[in-house]
Every structure is written in C-alpha cells, then in structure tokens.
Amino acid sequence: METTFPSRPLLESTALRSGSIWALGFPPPCLKIPYFNPCRKFVVTQAAVAVEEQTKTKVSLLKIGTRGSPLALAQAYETREKLVAAHSELAEEGAIEIVIIKTTGDKILDQPLADIGGKGLFTKEIDEALLNGDVDIAVHSMKDVPTYLPEGTILPCNLPREDVRDAFISLSAASLAELPAGSVVGSASLRRQSQILYRYPSLKVENFRGNVQTRLRKLSEGEVQATLLALAGLKRLDMTDKVTSILSIEEMLPAIAQGAIGIACRTKDETMANYITSLNHEETRLAVSCERAFLETLDGSCRTPIAGYAYRDKDGYCVFRGLVASPDGTRVLETSRRGAYVYEDMIQMGKDAGEELKKRAGPEFFDFLRSHK
C-alpha cells in the first residue's frame, strides 16, 4: 500500500507550529521527500539548542578583575593558575573568567603620574567593579595599591614576591655610569628620577609613560638613551633578554612593594577570601606590610620620591631600608632598621623609620612637595 503524504504547505506549516516533524506522526521515510527535509532541520535545531544550553551551564565560579596591560594579564593568569592548582572545582573549563578593566592610569598616558592624581590611578576602577559585584577578586601590582583600602574590601593575600631590583636598559651604554653627560633617561617614577639625579647629576630624566612594550619601542626609536624597568615585570613577561644590566639595591632602592602581587576581595565574601587566602605567601605579606607602614607614615604619593625594602636576612631577622628624596635629587635621606620577622614588630619598624625621616626632613620639605601639586 502506498503512503500518501500531505501537501508541502500543510507539511511545512504543521512542522513550524509544532517545532518537530514527529508531531505529524511520520517515521524516518520522510527523508525521501525531495523538496523538503524537516528531519534535517529538526536535528540541526536540536543541536543548536543543545550547544546553547551547554553554554548557559558554564557559568564562571570566579571572576578576576585586572588591568589589560600584558604585565597585568600575566599576573592575572599566574593567579588563575595557582587557584586552579589549589582548588579542583576551579579547574573546570570556564570556572574562572578574567575581566579586563581600564583604569585612569591606563587612559591618560601623556601626563606624569604626579599630575593626574597619584593615589589609586591603577586600582580605583577595579575596586569599584569589585564592590559592585562585577568581579569577585581583584589582582593588583602592590606598588600601585594606596596605603588605604576602599571600605568593603580586604587584601588578605600576597603571592610570592619576585626580584625587587630595577633593570637598566639601553642600546648605547652598559650602565647609568657609562651614559654620557646630557643623556636622557626615560622614567615616569620620581623615585627613580631622584636617585638617578642624586648619583648622576649630569643626566636628564624625562617623563616616560606606557606599558613595558611601549617603553621599549620608544627606546628603540631613540626618544631616550636609556630607561629603567622593574625586573619583576620583565621576568613575568619572559623579557629578561631586553635587560642591559641590573641595578643593585644600594644603587637604586626599589619602590614600596615592588615585585609583589596583591589579591583583594569583598569584606564579607568568605568563599573568595578562603580561595585567595590559600595562596598567600606570608613572608611576602609581612615584608610588604612593613614597607607600606613606612609609606603611610610619610603620607607618600606619586609626588613624593619614596623607596623602601624589607627582607629576611640569613639569620631570620627583618632588615628594612627606607628613603625619601626631593624630585631633583639634591636631597636624599635614608634610614634602616633590623628586628624580629613578626608582623607587629615589622609594622612598628616601618612606622619608626617613617617618623625618623619626617623629623630629619622637616615640615618645610613636605610643604614644598605639597605646594608643587
């Protein structure tokens, strides 16, 4: 007996209304219809729905907020790798999402940092995203983090610190000492500027903004004869081949918290706090806390050339060195401390060192810096 199929319009309209050819009661022979293949349409439609449903179920468990520079992303990826290694549920594909946030410091590149506000230039928008719930944790370079944290956030984690030293990069000289008089060194850091001019007053320092790649390009184009970059960043970017020489701590005291990564979350978010606290490197956290206590005591900003470094010596004690200077390098004041590698003691060391330099500098020194804002 020959099967009689309905007309093409009836078949199409019925299939469209039901969303499935099986609603018509036809078996697979419908594939033989030369002018219309509803079974194929059904399979394709169902596959698309399946993919969409699968995508919907892959909701990230944790969103990392970060700047979009190559270095910032390298730090965010490092954080993600450590979270995945420490927590199996975060190892699932799509469990961790990295969210790029553009900050004020990234948007304004034609002015010195000191002229556009100083504190929070590279963290403000990321902190806002954290507080708004757009991200769950925030990854920062600790040297960019103000000494105060926004209300509603905590920073319980520092990853193991990288090399704190600065790298000298030049196409024409092996070191700062070998640069001819009048050579221009590019740097956006008043800390570096003051120490360069203190030791090499015949050199010039010009504002030099941009990420690592941008600065190296400007150097290769001859805008400056040399520049200084944090060795930690070059290591994280696997770009140490660009280094001409490494400056010793004695020649160039590093920025507060240089080489350290900090991870913040919301105050009452216990889940995220537990995740990131599990990554904390306590020796780094204590050293950074000591340095930041020093900075806070001096009320430092991008207009105040301040440097500081705390570390554990071979005997297990904390050694701290601090410095404050005038931007032109004509006045540089230094101090040091040594004590137990314990949080309370190290905080006190930082504060004491800051108070000492405040007294030695005198109020007129800081009044001068403030008057030039």
TrEMBL record:
SUPFAM superfamilies: Periplasmic binding protein-like II (SSF53850), Porphobilinogen deaminase (hydroxymethylbilane synthase), C-terminal domain (SSF54782). It holds the Pfam family Porphobil_deam. It is found in: Plastid, Chloroplast. Its EC number is 2.5.1.61. It is an enzyme of class 2 (transferase). Its cofactor is dipyrromethane. Its main location: plastid. It comes from the Eukaryota. Keywords: Chlorophyll biosynthesis, Chloroplast, Plastid, Porphyrin biosynthesis, Transferase. The keyword DNA-binding does not apply. Pathway: Porphyrin-containing compound metabolism; chlorophyll biosynthesis; Porphyrin-containing compound metabolism; protoporphyrin-IX biosynthesis; coproporphyrinogen-III from 5-aminolevulinate: step 2/4. Residues 62-273 form the Porphobilinogen deaminase N-terminal domain. One of its GO terms (molecular function) is hydroxymethylbilane synthase activity. One of its GO terms (cellular component) is chloroplast. CDD domains: PBP2_PBGD_1 (cd13648). Gene3D superfamilies: Periplasmic binding protein-like II, Porphobilinogen deaminase, C-terminal domain. GO terms for biological process: chlorophyll biosynthetic process; heme biosynthetic process. Tetrapolymerization of the monopyrrole PBG into the hydroxymethylbilane pre-uroporphyrinogen in several discrete steps. HAMAP family: Porphobil_deam (MF_00260). Belongs to the HMBS family. NCBIfam families: hemC. This is Porphobilinogen deaminase, chloroplastic. It comes from Stephania cephalantha. The lineage of its organism: Eukaryota, Viridiplantae, Streptophyta, Embryophyta, Tracheophyta.
